[in-house]
Specification:
Elements lengths: L1 E3 L9 H9 L5 E5 L16 H20 L4 E5 L2 H12 L3 E5 L4 H13 L4 E5 L21 H11 L32 E2 H8 L22 H13 L6 H4 L13 H6 L4 H15 L3 H23 L20 H9 L5 H13 L4 H14 L4 H11 L5 H12 L13 H8 L4 H5 L28
Helix pairs in contact: 3-4, 7-10, 10-11, 11-16, 13-14, 15-16
Bound molecules: flavin-adenine dinucleotide.
Pfam family, one: DNA_photolyase
Protein name: Cryptochrome DASH
InterPro entries: Cry_DASH, Crypto/Photolyase_FAD-like_sf, Crypto/Photolyase_N_sf, Cryptochr/Photolyase_FAD-bd, Cryptochrome/DNA_photolyase_1, DNA_photolyase_N, Rossmann-like_a/b/a_fold
């Protein structure tokens, strides 16, 4: 049994190659846990319709690729443990394969199944990271408290990422187990094609529906990821990355690889291999190095999530530092709907709501505003990002939020961005604010309509 999660590709997938070599039959499954869609006390839902659409495009694309190898992707919605429990009882697989998961919610069913089925072999590998655990110069428990320390250790000791090698997709796959009815008679588990109609998605998606940050649409699937990667390195953008990466908008100011890296249609090794080829053709400079630098941040946060477990989601973070933060509904609604007094924040939130995409600088600015100006519980922001971001990645999202909230890996104990200064630096002409209507909803200097005693706050009228 091969359980796909955030590794939705066939290329550069060592675990898949291993399963293809070791098994006589393989059942491919993807399970959507309702817990990861349902709301909680912070958000009405943890997954927006736009994110689901992107995920669905990705699953369809994976299914098409599997079909070319006479295989099928099966999909189920439900508690992973319950679904797999039934399937393991029924099919008695010798082994179950799954990409390593870094956060507790995703790890939990795997651990439960391991203890329930001691005679089944559970095989997992880090297929979403640059380094395997044994290539790291430290154990996960000894991960340094700051990124800079981690980067220095990696750059001194770990194998160089200059000559990254991409593994080919398996040329063939073992057939599905005979017990699985291809027509999908299992109520919980159906081939992806059958689910498509049930969920109301069309088999082809109108390209104009896809969110765009560049002239290429952000479309789900391994082929779309490969096209995007190729298109990026056909430009000279990588040679200027360090100077442009902080821009709020614009064609290839940063790589925009994150949506595909997050769901595993693209591996970091594929990015590094394409970068290596680019450097051999056009030369290396500080900008090309900086792409690796940012990928190391991603790597760091993955290990950070494993090391810190549930602390990733706690108000006091990994520091246990006492912090305040309220869940004041009116302020949160203003932040979400782009009606704060800060046009730059509003523009960024409007962009995020409309597209599911936001630059790194935009994320830092709105996160800082939620924490420092609006004084809200940072987890409300993190959950809202989880709902909206097409590139949502549990480790990068929660790790970055903790960093800005001062309860994470930041040696400076948090970041408070001066919003006026940020606007002068990154949107001096106001183009971004105009494009995303940041002025339209701005509510003036007074954020709240009532004070602490619930009295209406009157706005002084200038005569
Ligand atoms: C509050 C907040 C929440 C975030 N949530 C997420 C998230 O859910 N998913 C996500 O992938 N990134 C997240 N990031 C990190 C970063 O903003 C995005 O990775 C980046 O904007 C993606 O655009 P890009 O692919 O053009 O990045 P580039 O600048 O081109 O960087 C290349 C790659 O490096 C990695 N990377 C870059 N910056 C970071 C970073 N700070 N932390 C971790 N990895 C990084 C990404 O995989 C990215 O695709 C968050 C940042 C902040 C401040």
């Amino acid at each position: 049994m091969f359980w796909f999660s955030n590794d939705l590709r066939l290329k550069d997938h060592p675990l898949l190659v291993r399963a293809a070599q070791q098994c006589q039959h393989l059942l491919f499954i993807f399970i959507q846990s309702p817990q990861q869609i349902r709301g909680n006390r912070f958000v009405v839902s943890r997954m927006s319709a736009e994110r689901r659409r992107f995920q669905w495009q990705t699953l369809q694309s994976l299914n098409t690729k599997l079909k070319n190898l006479d295989q099928t992707l099966h999909y189920a919605e439900g508690e992973p443990t319950a679904i797999l429990d039934g399937l393991i009882e029924q099919l008695q697989p010798d082994a179950i394969y799954r990409a390593r998961q870094v956060a507790s919610e995703e790890q939990h069913p795997w651990q439960q199944l391991q203890s329930r089925f001691p005679n089944t072999t559970f095989i997992s590998a880090a297929v979403q990271s640059i380094y395997q655990p044994d290539e790291l110069p430290m154990s996960v428990e000894a991960l340094p408290d700051t990124f800079s320390q981690f980067r220095r250790l990696i750059e001194q000791a770990a194998p160089s990422y200059d000559d990254a090698q991409v593994l080919a997709a398996p040329p063939s796959l073992p057939p599905p187990p005979t017990e699985i009815d291809q027509q999908g008679s299992q109520p919980a588990l159906l081939p992806v094609d059958k689910w498509q109609a049930r969920l109301g998605y069309s088999s082809t998606t109108d390209a104009s529906e896809e969110p765009q940050l560049t002239s290429l649409p952000i479309k789900g699937g391994e082929d779309a990821a490969a096209d995007f990667l190729r298109a990026y390195f056909q430009t000279s953008a990588a040679s200027h990355y360090k100077e442009t990466r902080n821009a709020l908008d614009g064609e290839f100011t940063s790589t925009r690889f994150s949506p595909w890296l997050a769901n595993g249609t693209l591996s970091p090794t594929q990015v590094l291999a394409a970068l290596g080829k680019y450097q051999r053709l056009h030369g290396r400079n500080e900008s090309t190095y900086w792409i690796c630098f940012e990928l190391l941040w991603r790597e760091y946060f993955q290990l950070y999530a494993i090391k810190h477990g549930n602390k990733l989601f706690q108000l006091r973070g990994i520091t246990n530092k006492p912090v305040t933060g309220c869940l004041y509904g009116e302020r949160l609604a203003r932040w979400i709907n782009g009606t704060t007094p800060y046009p730059l924040v509003n523009a960024s939130m409007n962009q995020l709501r409309a597209t599911g995409l936001l630059s790194n600088r935009g994320r830092q600015i709105v996160a800082s505003c939620l924490i420092h100006e609006l004084q809200l519980d940072w987890r409300a922001g993190a959950y809202y990002f989880e709902q909206q971001l097409l590139d949502y990645d549990v480790a990068s999202n929660w790790g970055n939020w903790q960093y800005i909230a001062g309860v994470g890996a930041d040696p400076r104990q948090g970041r408070h961005f001066n919003l006026k200064k940020q606007q002068q630096m990154f949107d001096p002409e106001g183009d971004y604010i105009a494009k995303w209507h940041g002025d339209e909803g701005a509510c003036g200097a007074v954020i709240d309509s009532v004070d602490a005693a619930d009295w209406p706050v009157s706005v002084p009228v200038n005569k």
